[in-house]
Amino acid sequence: MSRDAFRRLAVGIMVAVGTLLGAWGGGLLWFAADLAIRVEDQSTVTDAVVVLTGGAERLNSGIALLEAGRGRKLFVSGVHRGVDLPDLLRQAHVSPERARCCIVLGHAADDTVGNATETAAWMGREGFSSLRLVTAAYHMRRSLLELRRALPDATIIAHPVFPDAFKRDQWWRWPGTAHLLAVEYTKYLAALARPLITPKKTERKP
């Protein structure tokens, strides 16, 4: 390859990389600006309240919703194996007296895709068709994407929670929040692209 050809190739690569980084950065700004700032629907009653583990605020919100009659059962997805209900309530600083027979733990999920798969299986066993989804606001968009793929016919109501450690206002000035948003946005893009790069499973004919 001649020197001029190599230079043109290098310039082309730099332009392409710069364009991709610019698009990613613009998307990140949109992603951050579009985060929920409140719960839009607080009154609709669903069959279930589903909490994706990741913070005491989520579990506390889920239990409060259950006690308020917003769902018939509470399903907590993504609980570490070996952790039972009293352990989980203690870690979340929730009184054991608030635990009821209608709180169910799921231990099979290791990530958001697993949360969706585990929740769909549980919803099917219960015969439920609607749920209120409780997770952090920054995690809600990707969670809804995965849950709607796993439960295309279900009614899903978003119920975001807002951890104190997450600084939404001027997030770029808080390294921890900025890193969290960048990672979550990148995971969201990967979730969007996954059906395009993952071959569909074909059922074998009997």
From TrEMBL:
Pfam families linked: DUF218 (PF02698)
Entry keyword set: Membrane, Transmembrane, Transmembrane helix
DUF218 domain segment(s): 47-167
Transmembrane segments: 9-33
GO biological process, alphabetically ordered: Gram-negative-bacterium-type cell wall biogenesis; peptidoglycan metabolic process
Entry GO terms, CC: plasma membrane
Protein name per UniProt: Uncharacterized conserved protein
Species per Swiss-Prot/TrEMBL record: Paramagnetospirillum magneticum (strain ATCC 700264 / AMB-1)
